[in-house]
């Protein structure tokens, strides 16, 4: 990471700022899942169990930080931040199902279908996916921006992106793969929602096309870096910190970056991507310092 | 049904009109699932297999008919009609899963997880649910109406309505129930999406509050009538016509209307609800004749 000039950051200031945002996100997610009449209590419990489980809130933070970087108050982006986390939580619940990745540990606790049952887990995922769009459509103003946010999120979560990436990921676990396929899977399965988080934040700040392009580039590099560190954590991480069963990729012969590139080269690639992310913001007329700091956090994350 | 005055309908005209609309709906659904790059072929196939299977297209017809009844061209409502059918198709795919109702026949062909596999079926449902909102957000203009349609559809498909109704339905199959619970389940599981179809059509025609209220009332009565005829068909229908395994409700001790009311009383209730639906439109300043005819078709349906 020596090829990028880092201004003298106050890392602690960023960390404190992220923590403040995280608390607001959690409070909002809580408030938005106190359903009125009509939602059965077991379903409600399952939704809240998965959505409110301790998490990094990485994607919603990206939404808030990008709105803020563009000079607008970040709390206007809270509904979009919540919607992105709902999509993320739904995709984890469904990915963990026995018919999919068959995982029994997530965010340090039993997966949704383990804690409840398969039917409830499927429905909790469906409910969160739907609630994401209700949140955008209802609480983003003006409606022009609400519609644009629905479009951005639906594209990123749809059959050509998130769902398509997951479908290919399952298939790839039993097939021969290439580094190209692996990249394509992760750009869709993980990258698209991360990119969308940035675009949502920028859109809500009514950023220019140039700024949106820069945010997208940042998100694209960051998303891939995030996934490679995920692969590395699966190999070398601490199960207690990561909160899910590790060393599974290897056992399942999953396509991973360390498998193709080795651990050292994978680490190098993370460094390059983090620099790329930072550079994508460098020339923009925005205050991207927290976003840059977050990218460096991703490069060194332990969970 | 003697207590409602029916003008001399040209039933054949309505039938021909519905057929014309049905063909446009099918062509649109086909066009909208020719995905660009990024959607794996097996997923694409599963989505199209379930969505394009021969169906009555009851809900999308309600969208188009209500826009038309309010004096606007019905083709402006095609994106909303498609979105509603996507939600319906997704809910069938997920409801049929082994962890849910465990059905192997739907619309006269093997259910999605039978034809493909469970993981693909779960993902195809997720994709259709997401695509519904993409369709609304992208193709309804102006954006103000797109946002309103997203809100209407998300509420109807969410944890307090469609998903909540399905969750209670699964629970109720193993519990004691009441007629009240049964009605509440069906208002959410089936009724909400039918009501939303009417509201979407009316909203796209920019109907007045009074008209929207009338359409909702029509939808509420029709939705319940539709569900009771569903229960009756499960008991007495022809499996080849209905296209799904019948006489399952009884075997699974499901809550049904005939179980509480008996067959005769259930049939009477259908008649009353169809009349109620027609009456809800009678005094409105709209041309509801096709909607009224459709309600009578529901009252006598064989599939």
Could you walk me through the main structural features you see in this protein, from its secondary elements to its overall organization?
Two copies of one chain form a homodimer. The first copy, chain A, has 303 residues and is an all-alpha fold. Chain A has a single domain, classed as Farnesyl Diphosphate Synthase (Orthogonal Bundle), CATH 1.10.600.10. Chain A contains 14 helices and two strands; from the N terminus they run ααααββαααααααααα. In chain A, strands 1-2 form a two-stranded antiparallel ribbon. In chain A, a hairpin with a 2-residue loop joins strand 1 and strand 2. The radius of gyration of chain A is 18 Å and the shape is globular. The mean pLDDT of chain A is 93. The interface between A and B is large, with 56 and 57 residues.
Largest sheet of chain A: 2 strands, antiparallel
Q: What's the overall average pLDDT of chain A, rounded?
A: 93
Beta-strand portion of chain A reads under 5%
Q: How many DSSP-defined strands of chain A?
A: 2
Number of separate structural domains of chain A? 1
CATH homolog superfamily of chain A: Farnesyl Diphosphate Synthase
Supply Rg of chain A. Answer: 18 Å
- The appropriate CATH architecture of chain A is Orthogonal Bundle
* Through-space gap between termini of chain A: 21 Å
Highest CATH level, the class of chain A: Mainly Alpha
| Structure class of chain A | mainly alpha
Roughly how much helix do the residues of chain A carry, as a percent range?
over 70%
Trace the largest sheet of chain A across and list its strands. Answer: 1-2
Uncertain stretches of 5 or more adjacent residues of chain A:
none
CATH topology of chain A: Farnesyl Diphosphate Synthase
The interface involving the most residues is between: A-B, 56 and 57 residues
How many helical stretches of chain A?
A: 14
List the secondary-structure elements of chain A in sequence, H or E: HHHHEEHHHHHHHHHH
C-alpha geometry of chain A:
globular
Q: So what's the oligomer here?
A: homodimer
